[in-house]
């Protein structure tokens, strides 16, 4: 009976994954497929240590200031990733980072894009870098507070970037922010912005 129950659970899990339609952007072993942009005065030795992969996790060490981004452009999609701010942090950290969507050229620190905030205190709040929102953006601070897990624990963020420019952010399954941008496509990136920040299971689903 126990064996049968275990088999049923395994089949259900496999079916759920098959119906998920998410494709990994991170292979769990390397930074293959990702490109990098840093501040102009960044030292080569520091750049080599800014992002690295350990035990299936991308570790951003927060310095030098910059971001990693996909070589591929995306539009009309959902991105989902797991993240955590470890307890051990650089001095005077603000626990800050960010997801960048619809990145526009030229690449610079930081480029024209939309940032679903990665900072622990207001994770998911939308910032429109070098661009303006269409209408009013919404950030539900109460929902964020309820959904957010403490520093050191893993969270799941899901951002839907619709074809019409609408962006919706969910934190651990709870909708916390939304807005609309003039931008609708571009690479996806993650910031190095002064904090130790870990990311895993980065996945994207293209919408129909």
Question: Could you please describe the fold and organization of this structure?
Answer:
- The chain is an alpha+beta fold and 208 residues long.
- The protein has a single domain (24-206), classed as Jelly Rolls, CATH 2.60.120.
- It is 16% helix and 38% strand.
- It has three helices and 17 strands.
- The chain has helices at residues 2-20, 44-50, 141-147; strands at residues 23-24, 34-38, 51-54, 57-60, 66-70, 74-75, 77-84, 99-100, 113-116, 126-129, 138-139, 155-161, 166-171, 174-180, 185-186, 189-192, 197-206.
- The strands form four sheets. Strands 1, 3, 4, 7, 11, 12, 13, 14 and 17 form a nine-stranded antiparallel β-sheet that branches. The protein has a four-stranded antiparallel β-sheet with strand order 2-5-16-8, with no helix packed on it.
- A hairpin with a 2-residue loop joins strand 3 and strand 4 (57-60).
- The longest helix has 19 residues, at 2-20.
- It is globular and about 40 Å long.
- The model is unreliable at 1-18 (pLDDT under 50).
